[in-house]
Amino acid sequence: MDLDWVATFFKNDEWLIDYLKGMVKPAAALSVVLLAVALSYSQKLSLEGDMIYSVFRSFIQLSVIGFVLQFIFNQENAGWIILAYLFMVSVAGYTAGQRAKHVPRGKYVAGIAILSGTAITMFLLIVLNVFPFTPRYMIPVAGMMVGNAMTVTGVTMKQLRDDIKMQLNLVETALALGATPRQATLQQVKRALVISLSPVLDSCKTVGLISLPGAMTGMIMGGASPLEAIQLQIVVMNMMVGAATVSSIMCTYLCWPSFFTKAYQLQTHVFSS
After folding, report:
1. Which among 190, 181, 196, 186 is positioned nearest to 259, based on CA atoms?
2. pLDDT score for 155
3. pTM of this prediction?
């Protein structure tokens, strides 16, 4: 692997000067955060510390990821794409599992579901030649899909477990009459999927009418034609719907071994907390 650019990049201080110059506008935008902190203090919300910590953490994370992406974009090794993708899936699986913390092995379930949904979608995009398999395209695309699938998967798992808990007697009655776990929880699965996917579908219905999405806004601000930005945004919305749907459905199937025994009985301890 050619790392000469790294030595050249850090050999002089020009990179630091350019970076600091570029941070002038983000620093100016802190005035909005200070306004939020002041309002929180005046209303006694006790959120000032969280606001400052969140902004500082986002600054560090984005700064680090900026340098990491600069490094990856200068490589021609596809392994960096896969490594970055797996890292995003791991973090997303952990985060979604934390949301559904009462689901046993929730982090693994969420991780596998997100990996399945996003990998299938990315594979189709590559095969259909929608995006070239390069870091500059695939890493941002993967990030958008993984982030969206993470939210949907976490909501699906939590909602499914909560609905089964609320209707435990109905599910047990269906199982006693010979229903399979899928048949006994069909209505709960449908409800969980509808609730988790509704925000994604609502954003598709209102895209461009209420707000301009991030990918489209970035292209327009970068000087691209609005028509080109629209074409990209259509692709982004389509792939997010596809990845979210596959991931959410997959996680319902993966939850069943945690909810039911091999004898088709409910794992009561899962729903006792």
Report:
1. 181
2. 94
3. 0.81
